[in-house]
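Recall the central idea of this unit: under ordinary conditions, the amino acid sequence of a chain determines the structure it adopts. In this exercise we apply that idea directly, starting from the sequence alone.
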Amino acid sequence: MSETETSQLHQQVQILCNFMNSRILGQERLISRMLVALLADGHILVEGPPGLAKTRAVKTLASGLEGDFQRIQFTPDLLPADLTGTDIYRPHDSSFNFQPGPLFHHVIVADEINRAPAKVQSALLESMEERQITVGKTTYPLPGLYFVMATQNPIDQEGTYPLPESQLDRFLLKVTIDYPRVDSEVQIMQQVRREARQDEVALSIPAMLPIAQQTIFDARQQILDIYMAQPVEQYIAQLVDASRNPQPYSTALADWIQYGASPRASLAFDRCCRALAWLEGRDYVSPEDVQKLAHEIMRHRILLTYQAEADGISTEQVIDELLAKVPTA
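Accordingly, the structure predicted from this sequence is:
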């Protein structure tokens, strides 16, 4: 691909990023990580209190892409067939006709995924991993552009079904978000007021959007060619290994960590760091990219000991300690 084509791809994705930042105020990190996950061909789990524009963010992303959007509200009475679809009997010709479920869309938000029982969670996570759905004896492929953002509410845990570690591991990134700053909150009020007035500027979509699916596929191929030096690869491997064998680095880490990150963490670092470098206009990955993404990649892949939890040690503190103890070179 020529340098001009590369520049055009990057420009289109940057327009999408700017569009999202203009609609979702005060959540720049969330938007950055959503684009990283999309370009790395993965899925994202977002945890934060209600009202922080999680659903709005993924709807805005979908409006900037060539494809359709589906929101699924997870509830305790949801069934797997409510997601995957089911075979409908047709009595006039004694045949069965498959009725696709909401998973057969390009961009999906799974609201409060921990509200639904394990069978429903498994149906979603299987579609994320295998990119296909099996109903009866027939397997149906999912779209080539397939992006899932699942959300969790960290406040109200009553009546929830926490995701097992093995299922959490299938999310490329886990992002935690918090309330916006005061200046952003003022801008949010002003923007919602403009939208309520049907302001054309507030509701308009830039001319270069929506982005064609092929643009995203081409960008993913470019990202695979981003240069990652052998010392950076070694740094990633050592950082992940330190979460499994922390004793040589710190006795405190050894007391805190029960289980470390799986090889999926290394693969996530490899893809996401390249995607972040590409988004920032660089053709190489630096150790700083690894450090920027370490919390989102590892926070849902490290299991703490009972003693660490009793002492009030958080996964964030453990990752900070890992970054402090593992040398970059």
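The mean pLDDT is 88.
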